[in-house]
Amino acid sequence: MKKRILLLSSSPRRHGNSDRLCDEFLRGAREAGHDAEKISLRDCRIGYCTGCGVCYDTRTCPQRDDAAQIVGKMIAADVIILATPVYFYTMSAQMKTLIDRCCARYTEMTGKEFYFIVAAADDSKAAMERTIDGFRGFLDCLDDSRECGTIYGVGAWKIGEIEGSPAMKQAYDAGLNC
Predict the structure, then answer these.
(1) For an engineered disulfide with 84, which of 23, 24, 66, 91 has Cβ 3.0 to 4.6 Å away?
(2) In terms of pTM, does the model score above 0.90?
(3) What is the spatial distance between Cα 88 and Cα 110, in angstroms, rounded to a whole number?
């Protein structure tokens, strides 16, 4: 069955390690015949949630930036991939900002499958669980969401160090089989 897949890459580095893992997932998904799109948050203008509360009644955010379009694509997707470099054992500010901006319409994100991609200099997968727990906190707020897999790109700090790692094949395979 053809799925609509949305990859959200929060790497501020073009072709950074988490971004490269996204590209492998994307390649696998497209080879499997899925409709897949990658959005690089570094190319988007997304302001912080101001906590104004307007969205509680209107289900729209009064800010005029790229967040509304991205959130709309998240609602339309069947599968969402949240990808981040790991900074101080948590997700990037770009990813957290987007997640916070889902407030207006998160109740519309039902029945989604999620994959997580993390890339870090640290070699320990266990150390990445704090980052994954942040993603899981978001999923806990969504109805009928499912965590389908995590790709741990550990031991990669400088751009390109992820190449040839087992995580690259895992990302490709996850896209191919999602």
Answers:
(1) 91
(2) yes
(3) 31
* Nearest-angstrom CA–CA distance, 93 and 60: 22
Distance CA 61, CA 58 (A): 8
Q: How far is the C-alpha of 91 from the C-alpha of 83, rounded, in Å?
A: 9
Per-residue pLDDT tens, the chain, 178 aa: give them.
Answer: 999 999 999 999 999 999 999 999 999 999 999 999 999 999 999 999 999 999 999 999 999 999 999 999 999 999 999 999 999 999 999 999 999 999 999 999 999 999 999 999 999 999 999 999 999 999 999 999 999 999 999 999 999 999 999 999 999 999 999 9
The position carrying tokens 């949305």 is 6
